[in-house]
């Protein structure tokens, strides 16, 4: 999402962050196969370390986007839905369901495609015809 916003010249209008809903990977760098997939598309994540979603994030950010229903359940347990801030990324696409976790599927190409579709759809909804 950061790369899309930057490409659109809108980086000064957005604050984008990533946070885990679980604690398993806190403090770890981006998973190597995910890092390689991002690098294929010119996205650098050097120095990025996993952090856990905090209750204050519900006040800081206008939207909190989950990849799957387990993410949504964890978010709602932590902070509720606070004025409709919590959504699935696929809500901004024609895709049905959730983003498949490549940790389990091993299919980083499919996940890349689905996340990209979601981010493009979200950006389009926020900014109008950003595609």
Give an overview in words.
The protein is mainly alpha-helical. The chain has one domain (2-127): 3-Layer(aba) Sandwich (Rossmann fold), CATH 3.40.50. The chain has helices at 2-7, 32-40, 57-60, 69-79, 102-105, 108-127, and strands spanning 64-66, 86-88. Strands 1-2 form a two-stranded parallel ribbon. Helix 4 (69-79) links the parallel strand 1 (64-66) and strand 2. The chain is globular and about 35 Å long.
- Please give the number of β-strands: 2
CATH homologous superfamily identity: Response regulator
Estimate the strand proportion. Answer: under 5%
CATH topology name: Rossmann fold
Structural class: mainly alpha
Give the proportion of residues in helices.
40-55%
User: How many distinct domains?
Assistant: 1
Order of strands in the sheet with most strands: 1-2
Q: Which word captures the global form?
A: globular
Instruction: Please state the second-level CATH architecture.
Output: 3-Layer(aba) Sandwich
Give the SSE string: HHHEHEHH
Low-confidence stretches: none
Count of discrete alpha- or pi-helical segments spanning 4 or more residues:
6
What would you report as the Rg, rounded to the nearest angstrom?
Answer: 14 Å
């Amino acid at each position: 999402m950061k790369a899309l916003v930057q490409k659109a010249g809108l980086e000064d209008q957005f604050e984008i962050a990533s946070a885990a809903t679980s604690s398993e990977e806190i403090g770890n760098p981006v998973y190597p196969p995910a890092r390689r997939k991002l690098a294929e598309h010119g996205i650098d994540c050097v120095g990025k370390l996993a952090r856990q979603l905090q209750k204050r994030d519900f006040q800081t950010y206008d939207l909190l986007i989950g990849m799957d229903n387990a993410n949504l359940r964890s978010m709602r347990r932590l902070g509720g839905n606070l004025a409709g801030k919590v959504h699935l990324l696929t809500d901004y696409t024609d895709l049905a369901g959730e983003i498949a976790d490549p940790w389990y599927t091993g299919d980083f190409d499919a996940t890349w495609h689905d996340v990209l579709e979601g981010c493009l759809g979200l950006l389009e909804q926020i900014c109008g015809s950003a595609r």
